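Many introductory courses stop at the sequence. We go one step further.
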Amino acid sequence: MFQDILQQTFFHNRILDYLICLSTFLIGIIIIQIFKSILINRLKVWAKKTATAIDYFLIHGIRENLLPLLYFGAFYLSIQGLTLNPVLEKGINVLGLILLTIFGVRFLLAIIIYGLETYWVKEEKDIARKHSLKGIFTLLKLIVWSLAIIIILDNLGIKITALVAGLGIGGVAIALASQAILGDLFSYFSLLFDRPFEIGDFIIIGDYLGTVEHIGIKTTRIRSLGGEQLVFSNTDLTNSRVRNYKKMDKRRVVFKLGVTYQTNLQQLKEIPVIITNIIKSINDTVFDRTHFFSYGDFSLIFEVVYYVISSDYNKYMDIQQEINFKIKEEFEKRGIKFAYPTQTLYLDKI
C-alpha cells in the first residue's frame, strides 16, 4: 500500500521523487548549517585573538555572499532528480545565473574596496584618504555592474553586439557633450593619486584661502577663514598654482622695522645684536640674519629673517608677538625710538 502511494505520479514525478528532492535539500541545509557553525565560530575566535579587520571582513563576506549561494546550490542539486516543465527549468537556470553573478560581483567588489582601503588608510596611515576614495568606489561599482549586466544578457542568449556598439557610439556622444565633467573627473584622479593636498590641509589658490573639507569627483570644497564654503571645480585646481601650508615643515619670516634718523651710530650697531639675542632666546625658532637694510624716507630700516619650526599659523603669530614685545622693551631701555611718518620743512628767507 505504502509503495503504491510512493509510486503515484504528479506533474510527471513520483511522490518518491519529491521525497528524495526534499530529503536532499534538508541534508544540504544541515551540512551548510554545520559548515556555517564551525567556520564562522572559528573565524570569530581567530578574530578575537588577532584583532585584525580582515577577520571581520571574511566573516561578513561569508555571511552576505557565500551562504546565499550555498543555499541556492542545495536547492538546485535537490531538484536535479525531478522532471520539470521546460519553462520552469529555464527560469531556475536563469535565476541561478543571476544570483551567481550578483553575489560574485558583490564579493569581488568587497575584496577590491577592502584592498584599496587597507592600502591607503592603513599602510599610509591616512584616514582622510578614505573619504576621498568614495568617488572612485562609486565609479568602480558602476563599471563592474555594467559588465556584469552585459555578461548576464549574453548568457541569456540576447544578442549584445548591437547593444555594445550602440553604447560605444552613445559613449562617444556623451563624452563630447560633457567634456567639462570628464575633465573634472580626470582631475579628480590626478588629485587622488598625486596628492597636492588632502582633507584638512590649509591651501591658497590665487586670492582664495581656506581648509580643504571635501574632495569630490567633480568639485572640491574649501572652508575659508571667514566661514563661508568655497567650491572649486577639480580642473580649476589642477590648472592653478596651489600653495599648501599644511606640508610646510618650517615657516620663513621676514619683517622690517625702522628707527629715527636721530639714532646715533652706537645704537645702530647695537640693534642687530639685540634682535639676534631675542630671537635665539625663543623656542622653536632658528635665527637667520639681521641687517641695517636701507635709508628710508623717514627712517633707518633694519631687515630681520628667522624661521619658525612649525606650520601652525597661530604659533607663528605668538612667536612674532613675543619678539615684538621684547624688541619694544629693549629699545625703551636704550632710548632707541621707532620711526613714524614725518616730514620736515626748511624755510629760507628771500
